[in-house]
Amino acid sequence: GKPAPPIRLKRLAGKKYDLAQEKGKIIVLDFWATWCGPCVREMPEIHEAYTEFSSDNFEILSLSFDSDFGKVASFRERRYAMPWLHGFVEGGFESDLSQSFEVTGIPKPILVNPEGTIVAVDGALRGERLAKTLGTHLQIGG
């Protein structure tokens, strides 16, 4: 129920991303890394949810803890396409971004509603619960 802290970063595509500019959308912030086994195991469910709910009102922003962009690019080419937005958490768990979202371990999914408030975290957004939680919030929100 807390307001989402600000996120301003460069996306992997080189464009800037500013969470404050996304008001009106439901956004899943997916803190993850290619080296994180549980993160990789979540990919099929995240892809299914993205396919099912993809719209102008819904977005996923994966925020990688990898040491460089190349690892994510290679992962997307070889393993999972991940056709949503991507950013990079410079400084890892010690970064201001990680600390402002209280990320002490990954995967750490966070759901932000159209008003910019955190409405779900962790367990409600993992595995098959992801689609159920998104369905509830997208029905309410849109």
How do the helices and strands line up, and which of them pair or pack?
Blueprint: E1 8-10, E2 16-18, E3 26-32, H1 37-53, E4 58-64, H2 69-78, E5 85-88, H3 96-100, E6 108-112, E7 118-121, H4 129-141
Parallel strand pairs: 3-4, 4-5
Antiparallel strand pairs: 1-2, 3-6, 6-7
Summarize the structure in words:
With 142 residues, the chain is an alpha/beta fold. It has helices at residues 37-53, 69-78, 96-100, 129-141; strands spanning 8-10, 16-18, 26-32, 58-64, 85-88, 108-112, 118-121. The strands form two sheets. The protein has a five-stranded mixed β-sheet with strand order 5-4-3-6-7, covered by helices on one side. Strand 6 (108-112) and strand 7 (118-121) form a beta hairpin. Helix 1 (37-53) runs parallel beside helix 4. The two termini are 19 Å apart. The model has no long low-confidence stretch (mean pLDDT 91).
